[in-house]
């Protein structure tokens, strides 16, 4: 029987920190279902289909060990529906711990059979978050190395920068 994990998130957009968690998660699980959670309370930059496209293009090298999906319900219910044994979560810093710990406890209360597995983000990605990357890109900051090249192109299509002459340009 395959060991399957759900890796839920907004992935708005997917970052190299997310890819680090996925790559390392594949050493623990046979298959990871990367699941975009639709949260109407969040003001997403990318639509769910756009995020699915970025994930599919970025993760195609994993040949069948990764599946891309979306859901708008409880993660534990989705995990049961997909025969997953665990929910995979990444943590960057102590500030993530309290929220993630509360969510893990609630998920455990809802379904004791679904485990939560935390992976600490690699040191290189501790400062990386989708929100910070979007903000940097919005104001013309260099986001090289924080997101895959395809994702960077998609971000820059959303945030063309003003050049000195007042014309819209593209970040290098």
How much of the sequence lies in strands comes to 15-25%
Named at the architecture level, the CATH assignment is 3-Layer(aba) Sandwich
Could you name the CATH homologous superfamily? HUPs
What is the level 1 CATH name? Alpha Beta
Shape: globular
Poorly predicted regions are 163-167
At a glance:
The protein has one domain: HUPs (Rossmann fold), CATH 3.40.50.620. Helices cover 38% and strands 20% of the residues.
Describe this structure in words.
The chain has 172 residues and is of the alpha/beta class. Helices cover 38% and strands 20% of the residues. The strands form two sheets. Strands 3-2-1-4-5 form a five-stranded parallel β-sheet, with helices on both faces. Strands 6-7 form a two-stranded antiparallel sheet. The chain starts with a strand and ends with a strand.
What are the main properties of this structure?
172 residues, alpha/beta, Rossmann fold, 5-stranded parallel sheet, two-stranded antiparallel sheet, 6 helices, 7 strands, 38% helix
């Amino acid at each position: 029987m395959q060991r399957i994990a759900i890796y839920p998130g907004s992935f708005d957009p997917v970052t190299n920190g997310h890819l680090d968690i996925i790559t390392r998660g594949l050493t623990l699980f046979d298959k990871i279902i990367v699941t975009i959670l639709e949260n109407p309370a969040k003001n997403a930059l990318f639509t769910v289909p756009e995020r699915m496209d970025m994930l599919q293009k970025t993760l195609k090298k994993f040949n069948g060990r990764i599946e891309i999906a979306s859901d708008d319900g409880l993660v534990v219910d989705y995990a049961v529906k997909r025969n997953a044994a665990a929910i995979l979560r990444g943590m960057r810093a102590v500030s993530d711990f309290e929220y993630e710990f509360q969510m893990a406890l609630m998920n455990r209360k809802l379904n004791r059979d679904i485990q939560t597995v935390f992976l600490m983000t690699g040191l290189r990605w501790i400062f990386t978050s989708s929100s910070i990357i979007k903000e940097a890109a919005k104001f013309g900051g260099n986001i090289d190395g924080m997101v895959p090249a395809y994702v960077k192109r998609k971000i820059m299509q959303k945030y063309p920068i003003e050049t000195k002459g007042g014309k819209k340009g593209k970040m290098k």
